[in-house]
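Look over both lines:
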Amino acid sequence: MKKAFVTKEQIEEIVKTYPTPFHIYDEKGIRENARKLKEAFSWNKGFKEFFAVKATPNPFLLKILQEEGCGTDCSSMTELMMSEALGFGEGDIMFSSNVTPKEEYKKAREVNAYINLDDYTHIDFLEKTAGIPEIIFCRYNPGGTFTLGTDIMDNPGDAKYGLTKDQMVDAFTRLQKLGAKKFGIHSFLASNTVSNEYYPTLAKILFELAVELKEKTGADIKYINLSGGVGIPYTPDKEPNDIMAIGEGVRKAFEEVLVPAGMGDVSIFTELGRFMLAPYGHLVTKAIHEKHIYKEYIGVDACAVNLMRPAMYGAYHHITVLGKEEAPCDCKYDVTGSLCENNDKFAVDRMLPKIDMGDYLVIHDTGAHGFAMGYNYNGKLKSAELLLKEDGSVQMIRRAETPKDYFATFDFCDILKGIE
């Protein structure tokens, strides 16, 4: 059973200052997890985690990860700007984008980010717009399906990302002629895997590719970026990944493939988002309505604006009713928000303790791809983000939006001048 990292008593105190709904993050859990990842890959001298900013783009959380030795993985101008403002510098930023505007490549060069090319045609585009850096990455797509054992994990052949193997050979050859000196390989083949075998399997594929590319092109390959894909168990019946076992699995593949090829100095990079932060974030919301028609409904003051994944994907997020953790789950509810969309539901036919109006509900695992995916449909406003600090105090790390924020893009005219 999943356990919330906040209690009813804590939330009752917090809401005196910060009304629900809000996202809250656990600093202690975040730091411990970052340290464990670093320990799992400590065998690799050049290892570095580049946190996927898109998962949780909050500068306060990025500073925590920076303090733990992490860099940032950026995919847009604003993510590059945030990283630069926080002091992430050369060697700290990975720029992995696709359909990339020239301004973003220019910014990536300006902040000395590692640039990870998503397409062969981007070589000439980058050369003309920002120049080819001495260190360059290319993203690999093997096509077909990606399997672990007998299970199909994903379909890279249907993905818009990356270069084919033949294109990788041509790209490394051409990039050397344009001045590139050192190379990295990147790939992302499956999302949110709850398997200790994903990274080691991916690593072996990329290690073997690196050896082949070196033999065919003579390129000096210094970096292998395993990207993201290591997930978390959203449902309480699944076991979490063992990052120590994962790190050991990658080490064995490294020793088996790269070391004999004379490539034992290759640095391993990761770009984890969900694994790094998802379990250490909660969406806290209050039950404000109940409805009894063909089903039993509990209406809360959060909605899909605050957490889109259940509405968009039908994704499961565990729910704890604070103060009723030991009560029997003998009531079946749909837990809904207030949007004019029938898919605005955090849970469907979920067995929970009896919920009374005013009860606080914790929606688990919102620390990544939670607040970040928010939007303003129905004129709804995004919530505050809070940090539960290691000493037990609470810090606001993003204020809640106001109507003034919602109307701010009309500030060029006076059509809404009567709104304060």
